[in-house]
Specification:
The protein has 6 helices and no strands. With 169 residues, it is mainly α. It folds into 2 domains: 121 residues, Up-down Bundle (Four Helix Bundle (Hemerythrin (Met), subunit A)), CATH 1.20.120.1200; 44 residues. The longest helix is centred in the last third of the chain and has 30 residues. The radius of gyration is 20 Å and the shape is flat.
Length: 169
């Protein structure tokens, strides 16, 4: 087993565990945090496979923008649950463990990036990739942007409805 295959299996385990924990958490903020860990693991996997642009897009778009949108939606809906003020240790340990493993793998990938190249990288400038994406797949991008807009409007509507019911209108 080579070093890169070992790193691949570690990243795969981190992604699977954090995604599994994300879909089984009752607290929505915890689910979002586990999903962010999963997205960072996917970005490191893209980087390991020789696609640094996709790794950067994964972090910027998914771990950044979409997760912020999810947190905004959670805060707008003000989902109330039976929550404790301080989180129990059994919820902190898996997140800290996965975060520590992901951090170590990320540091190792950055340090060993110059030693050898695992796969030949497909070279495309971001401008060329952007032109290809918006020329060939413009309809898909527009559909996704409309779905996100509709979801945001729906959340605002639900939040305003809940606010009206609480105020007694």
């Amino acid at each position: 087993m080579t070093l890169y295959s070992f790193i691949f299996y570690i990243l795969a385990a981190v992604i699977l565990l954090s995604t599994g924990w994300a879909i089984t958490r009752r607290n929505l903020v915890h689910a979002v945090i586990y999903l962010v860990i999963s997205f960072f693991g996917s970005a490191m996997l893209f980087y390991l496979m020789g696609a640094p642009l996709l790794a950067a897009l994964e972090v910027i778009i998914y771990a950044g923008a979409i997760m912020i949108l999810f947190l905004f939606i959670i805060m707008m809906l003000r989902v109330e649950g039976i929550e404790e003020r301080l989180f129990p240790l059994k919820q902190w340990l898996p997140a800290m463990g996965l975060g520590f493993i992901s951090f170590q793998v990320c540091i190792f990938l950055l340090i060993s990036a110059g030693s050898e190249e695992p796969l030949k990288a497909a070279m495309a400038e971001p401008a060329i990739f952007g032109h290809f994406l918006f020329r060939q797949h413009w309809l898909s991008i527009e559909i996704v942007s409309m779905l996100l807009l509709i979801a945001l409007i729906g959340v605002l509507h639900l939040g305003m409805e809940k606010k009206r019911k609480e105020s007694g209108e």
